[in-house]
Amino acid sequence: MAQEQSVTLMTYLPLISLAVSLVSAAIAVASYRRSKRLQEFDYAARLQVADESIYGRGPGPNDAFTYEGNLENRGLKPLKVSSVYLEFGCEEALNKRLKHHVEGEFYLGAGEKRKISFRLRKNDFKEALRRFETDQCYFYLRVQFHSPTGTIIEVTRSLMRLGETSTTIFAHKGDILS
Asked: What is the pLDDT of residues 80-98, one digit of tens each?
C-alpha cells in the first residue's frame, strides 16, 4: 500500500514542478513589465513652459505680438531640443503660416531652464494678414525634442488669436509640452 501511494506521488511530481515553474515565470514577466513602465515614467520627458508672458499689441508701441517664456526640463534626464519655432498665420492651412526660428539645437539638463522670446512688429503683422487674405492671425509655439529613449517628439501649442479689432489668448493647464 505504501509503495502504491509513493508511485502516485512520483507520477504527479513533474506536473506539480511544471506548474510551479509556470507560475514563477508569469510572476517574473509581470514584474518586468511593471518595472519597465515605472522606469519609462521616471525617465519620461517633462518639458514645460514656465514664466510665460504673451502680449497682443504690445508692450512696445510698434509691437503687434510679443512672447517670452522659459523652456524647462522637469524630467530626470537631459533633453536634446532640436528646434523651437513660433508660427503665425491661418488656423487650418499649415501652408499659410510663417515660421520664425526662435532657437536651434541645444540641450537642457534636468531642472534647467532656457529663455525663449519673439517679437512681431505691427508692419509684419499687417503684411501677414494681407498675404494670407485673412482678418486674424493665430500664433503657435512649436517645439521639437528628443525623448530620453531617442524618439523625436514634436508638440504644437496654441498661444493667441489676434485680429485687427479682437484678441484671444488661449489658456493652458498642466504639463504644457510633454
From this structure: 999 999 998 888 887 888 8
